[in-house]
TrEMBL record:
Residues 1-20 form the signal peptide. InterPro entries: Cu-R_lipoprotein_NlpE (IPR007298). This is Copper resistance protein NlpE N-terminal domain-containing protein. PROSITE patterns: PROKAR_LIPOPROTEIN (PS51257). The lineage of its organism: Bacteria, Pseudomonadati, Pseudomonadota, Gammaproteobacteria, Oceanospirillales. The keyword Transmembrane does not apply. Keywords: Signal. It comes from the Bacteria.
Amino acid sequence: MQLRSLLAGSAMLALLAGCAAGPTEQREEEQATSSEVTYQGTLPCRNCDGIDLDVVLQGEEQSTAEERTFNLNAAYRNHPQNPPDETYEGNWEVLSGTPSDPDATVYELTPDGDGQIYYFLRVDDRTLELIDPERRRFENGETLQLNRQ
């Protein structure tokens, strides 16, 4: 199963609830000095118990494009076809604005080689939300959120 089908089917998948782990105070202090940030969450999946998604962003918004890299890992829980984990690496960009909020910050993750581009809305300093390529939020976007670890 290609990860690119995840985004296309996210609107339908958003009917199911996802869950995400919360951060600890100690990790917050560690990340204040680090240029690597990890976000984790479980996205809904119509054929399985959820898709565990880990996104690691290296670099900062002010860094050069070459310094802004990412790793994305998707693991399917209890999928009947038992697909392998999918891992992508590439660069990320900072985009400004969405149709409903011109001041919003969106991260565009572009994988090296094959793979689809992912768009994440920065909801707040601790939360990213998967959005569509038109930078619109899905109806049940709270089920598509990743939390900073």
